[in-house]
Write a structure and sequence with these properties.
The protein is 36% helix and 18% strand. Strands 6-12-11-10-9-7-8 form a seven-stranded mixed sheet, sandwiched between helices. Helix 9 links the parallel strand 9 and strand 10. The two termini are 34 Å apart.
């Protein structure tokens, strides 16, 4: 099969022309050639699955040879409403024909509309949002805002948490393997055990600006605590005058079965960070904050050239509209329960962790073995930092039939293993 990839650095002969065909193209004669070319030209950062992805629709991802995969991983939980949702595609196409980009030095109608819609969906007491380009940037913003608002130097992160790979976000990430070779990192970050309120209370003091937590620690193996822990976090932060930050980069916008993870426990944090599925794969991050915090941020204290550009806001607005109009959080809760019931009794499955459609299968065998076998059967699943936890994170539009197909396939695989 011949794979063609547009060459993007060649200018159009006529900038007013309506023909969108590229001037020239790179051509790969088969998938192996594309893999070799990418490995040669791109900095190696991920151990990649042997798939050359060329097309997607809903839960389905298609490779260069036309093979159909059921995508129960969503490229790190990004394709929240499925690959190429028609409403999102239409919004992107319409905005691209109108205005692709202008920076925050001007107002934007599409940015205004999306920011208004997002804040209307935010928890009570939230006032404003900062748009950026990734989850790491969203968490860096939360760190900066927390220090400025409180006038305190220390951020407490939790063991097992992952908050990004930029230097500030990496400092708040506990796994040593991500930090090796990059020290010294940002000072003023401490770690507390996840799920242990007494240990956290003993660690917090008048220097604590904020506590940052992933409500569900996805990369660490889909780890979560009891409801009382999250409620205790809120009470401790209030008692100490510190802020509570929920990193909802994977949990936000309905994936857990509620719009916001705190809704499960009646907890409203002071800051929520978002990314991943916020714009259905167009790169975007966001830091939402309560009004009392937002009012303390002044002009020129923070910024982003590309954050909240017209194109990405159009994609994000369409994504939010799909989530709300289809009541996808409730659907995620129902499908998550179906997955839990279908997979919980399979061989080698010790436990199904998580909420909604952010689930982890705790196995008594290596998760990588199951992931590899599932891929051979046309199903994409994710591993985690726990070698025995397989992550299941389908799009919110996953159907009962899709879940049943996953269950039937895994039953065959796990019985064979």
């Amino acid at each position: 099969m011949t794979i063609t990839v547009a060459e993007t650095n060649a200018p159009a002969a006529d900038p007013t022309a309506t023909d969108s065909s590229p001037v020239s193209r790179f051509t790969f004669h088969d998938a192996a050639a594309a893999m070799t070319a990418e490995t040669t030209a791109q900095l190696g950062t991920y151990a990649k699955l042997p798939i050359v992805a060329v097309r997607g629709a809903g839960i389905h991802l298609y490779d260069a040879d036309g093979r159909d995969y059921y995508d129960f991983y969503c490229g790190h939980a990004v394709t929240l409403v499925g690959h190429c949702h028609p409403q999102v595609v239409a919004a992107i196409q319409a905005q691209a024909a109108q205005l692709i980009f202008y920076s925050n030095i001007v107002y934007s109608d599409v940015r205004a509309a999306y920011a208004t819609a997002l804040m209307a969906a935010a928890p009570a007491g939230y006032g404003q949002v900062f748009f950026c380009n990734s989850g790491a940037e969203a968490n860096e913003t939360a760190l900066k805002v927390s220090r400025k608002f409180t006038g305190r130097p220390t951020i407490i992160a939790l063991a097992g948490g992952f908050h990004g790979r930029t230097m500030g976000a990496l400092a708040m990430t506990s796994n040593a393997k991500y930090k090796a070779g990059f020290e010294p990192l940002l000072l003023g970050v401490e770690f507390a055990p996840f799920g242990d309120l007494a240990a956290l209370a003993a660690q917090m003091d008048a220097n604590t600006a904020a506590v940052i937590v992933e409500p569900i620690q996805s990369i660490a193996g889909v780890r979560m605590a009891a409801a009382a822990y999250y409620q205790g976090l809120r009470a401790l932060c209030d008692e100490q005058g510190a802020l509570l930050i929920f990193d909802e980069i994977q949990t936000g916008l309905g994936r857990t079965g509620k719009m916001w993870a705190g809704d499960h426990w009646g907890v409203i944090p002071d800051i929520i960070t978002l990314a991943k599925g916020i714009a259905s794969g167009v790169p975007m991050g966001a830091t939402m904050m309560t009004t009392r915090i937002a009012e303390t941020i002044h002009l020129d204290e923070h910024g982003s050239t590309f954050g909240g550009g017209p194109l990405v806001c159009a994609a994000a607005a369409a994504t939010l509209a799909v989530i709300q109009s289809g009541d996808l959080p409730a659907h995620a809760a129902a499908m998550g329960e179906r997955i839990r019931n279908a997979l919980g009794g399979l061989p080698h499955v010790l436990e199904v962790r998580g909420l909604g459609l952010l689930l982890g299968l705790h196995l008594d065998i290596p998760a990588k073995t199951v992931q590899t076998a599932a891929l051979e059967h046309g199903i994409i699943l994710g591993t985690s930092g726990d070698a025995n936890v397989l992550r299941v994170m389908p799009p919110l539009v996953v159907t009962a039939a899709d879940v049943d197909h996953l269950a039937a396939t895994l039953e065959v695989i796990l019985k064979e293993l």
